[in-house]
Amino acid sequence: MEDSILIVEDEERMRNLIEAYLRKEKFNTLKAKDGLEAIRTFDSNKIGLIILDIMMPFMDGFDVCKYIRKESNVPIIILTAKAEEDDKLFGYELGADDYVTKPFSPKILVAKTKALVKRYYPDEKYTNYPINIEGLIIDELSHEVLIEDKEIYLSPKEYDLLLYFAKNKGILLTRDKILDGVWGMDYFGDLRTVDTHIKRLREKLKQKAYLITTVRGSGYKLEVKK
Q1: Degrees (nearest 5) of the Cα angle 213, 214, 217?
Q2: pLDDT by residue (tens digit) across 42-69?
Q3: What DSSP line would sit under 14-40, residue for residue?
Q4: Which top CATH class is 4-127?
Q5: Of 15, 53, 77, 172, which has the fewest beta carbons less than 10 angstroms from its beta carbon?
Q6: Over the range 162-176, which residues count as b (16 or more CB within 10 Å of their CB) and which as e?
Q7: What residue ranges in the chain does DSSP mark as E strands?
Q8: Which of 44-53, 69-78, 123-132, 178-187 has the lowest mean pLDDT?
Q9: Which residues 6+ apart lie within 8 Å of 132 measured at CB?
């Protein structure tokens, strides 16, 4: 994405930290320390995504969000210390695309940023950007898996299995096909290896385990809601 990511945050240390993580991923960035500066920066630059703090002097993030939405559909991530459900709902009603509550992991914020970039700019080449399936995020660059902002830890083979399902979502996968795709054509192990690994993977996915469904007598499928 050639356009810049605008970081709107009144704490200088936090602004610089977010910028450092985004620049590490080769994103262009601009910064604003309050709502008024954010609007001036937005109006005078090409902005591809906004990371927007709520509690700021002069003009809060909600008012900035309202202003932006009158002008643009640019993706917005709300960044705030407020964890109350009503505040999150209000942010979404104003047109925010995602919500991160402080304190947070910068890696999670970057993963959410990449996922939004991939969704909003599909014509650009982001083949290694995170896959986001109903709140399950798979980051191919870092081999990290997040569920609702929390990292889960998978073995290398469990990660490969989940990635294989994600890249073949909606497709019926037989045990033989899974063995070939994940373990390789030269693997001569028991088909039950697939069942065992899927069972372990489901246990780790917990509330997202429903995504991997069993097709009786045929195999497995990663189902995504329409």
Answers
A1: 155
A2: 999 989 999 999 888 888 888 999 999 8
A3: HHHHHHHHHHHTT--EEEESSHHHHHH
A4: alpha beta
A5: 172
A6: bbebbebeeeebebe
A7: 4-8, 29-32, 47-53, 76-80, 98-101, 131-133, 136-139, 144-147, 150-152, 212-215, 219-222
A8: 123-132
A9: 115, 118, 119
Q: What is the CATH number of domain 151-222?
A: 1.10.10.10
**pTM as predicted:** 0.59
Query: Rounded CA gap, 34 and 61, in Å?
Result: 8
Token pair 């509330």 is found at 207
Q: Write the DSSP symbol of residue 139.
A: E
3-state secondary structure of 213: strand
Sequence spans of domains, the chain: 4-127, 151-222
Q: Measure the CA angle with vertex 31, ends 48 and 144; round to 5°.
A: 65
